[in-house]
């Protein structure tokens, strides 16, 4: 494991993979993505999957993990956040929520728990709307791996107040969907401002994680807003993080 004295910022982009260099279907080529272009001089694709620039590198991983079938969120995210080959443990890919026999593993060895056990400050920077808290308070427990990891380790989940104070981020970064879909009246912020908020949060904690899942919704066709606008917001958010992070504080 990594040194718990560092300030680690972990960004999880759900549903993102390396595809063909296709300007018609691959959205990173169709709309452009400055984060890759500025950091590595090009966008990764199947013919060039490993990119390096000084201390920064981009490398693919095999989501199948020697198990046939279509990778799923439940097993894939368990693998990422717990350091195990979850599909091999249950003999299949499973999702979107973790398979029941994986839950004890998530409770014992998720990455948040590692830092909690080290008595370090840990932060899951995503915020949840009230409708989510109503859901879990009703006794329902179908949760994603990240949320379940926090819940099983008694970590506080952020809500409206933390977003207003700049101490947490809504999942879509800008707060826009909380206002248009959930009836909130939050200030709409730029992706750049959201990135700066996240960097400031990470400087206060040994480990900070942020999960962005609109990319997964886009891939599954469950998203009703403009794809190009959404990807440009994500691009500005990531580019700000990589260009503005203070290495002396990490």
Strand and helix map with partners:
Blueprint: E1 8-13, H1 27-31, H2 34-40, E2 51-53, E3 56-58, H3 73-82, H4 86-90, H5 103-109, H6 111-117, E4 122-124, H7 130-137, H8 145-152, H9 160-164, H10 176-182, H11 191-202, E5 207-212, H12 214-220, H13 227-244
Helix pairs in contact: 2-13, 11-13
The tally of structural domains comes to 2
Strand content: 5-15%
Count of helices?
Answer: 13
What shape does the CA trace take?
globular
Radius of gyration: 18 Å
Mean pLDDT, rounded to whole units?
A: 91
How many beta strands in the DSSP annotation? 5
Q: What percentage of residues falls in helices of 4 or more residues? A: 40-55%
Structural class of the secondary elements? mainly alpha
* SSE ordering: EHHEEHHHHEHHHHHEHH
**Unreliably modeled segments:** none
Gap between N and C termini: 16 Å
- Placed side by side, the strands forming the largest sheet appear as 1-5-4
Q: Largest sheet, described in full?
A: 3 strands, parallel
Structure description:
With 250 residues, the chain is mainly α. Helix content is 42%, strand content 8%. It has 2 domains: 8-17 and 121-249, no CATH class; 19-59, no CATH class. It has a 3-stranded parallel β-sheet with strand order 1-5-4, with helices on both faces. The chain has a two-stranded antiparallel sheet with strand order 2-3.
In short:
The protein has 13 helices and 5 strands. By secondary structure, it is mainly α. The mean pLDDT is 91.
């Amino acid at each position: 494991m990594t040194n718990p004295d560092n300030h680690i910022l972990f960004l999880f982009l759900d549903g993102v993979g390396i595809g063909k260099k296709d300007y018609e279907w691959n959205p990173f080529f169709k709309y452009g993505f400055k984060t890759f272009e500025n950091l590595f001089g090009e966008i990764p694709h199947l013919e060039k999957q490993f990119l390096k620039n000084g201390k920064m590198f981009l490398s693919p991983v095999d989501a199948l993990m020697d198990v046939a079938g279509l990778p799923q969120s439940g097993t894939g995210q368990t693998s990422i956040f717990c350091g195990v080959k979850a599909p091999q443990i249950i003999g299949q890919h499973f999702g979107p929520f973790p398979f029941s026999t994986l839950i004890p593993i998530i409770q014992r060895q998720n990455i948040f728990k590692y830092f909690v056990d080290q008595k370090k400050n840990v932060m899951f920077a995503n915020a949840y709307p009230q409708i989510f808290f109503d859901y879990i308070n009703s006794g329902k427990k179908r949760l994603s791996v990240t949320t379940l990891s926090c819940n099983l380790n008694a970590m506080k989940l952020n809500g409206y107040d933390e977003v207003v104070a700049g101490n947490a981020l809504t999942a879509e970064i800008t707060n826009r969907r909380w206002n248009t879909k959930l009836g909130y009246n939050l200030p709409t912020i730029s992706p750049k401002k959201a990135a700066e908020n996240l960097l400031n949060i990470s400087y206060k904690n040994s480990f900070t994680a942020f999960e962005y899942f609109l990319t997964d919704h886009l891939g599954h066709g469950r998203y009703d807003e403009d794809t190009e606008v959404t990807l440009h917001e994500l691009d500005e958010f990531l580019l700000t993080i990589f260009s503005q992070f203070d290495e002396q504080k990490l």
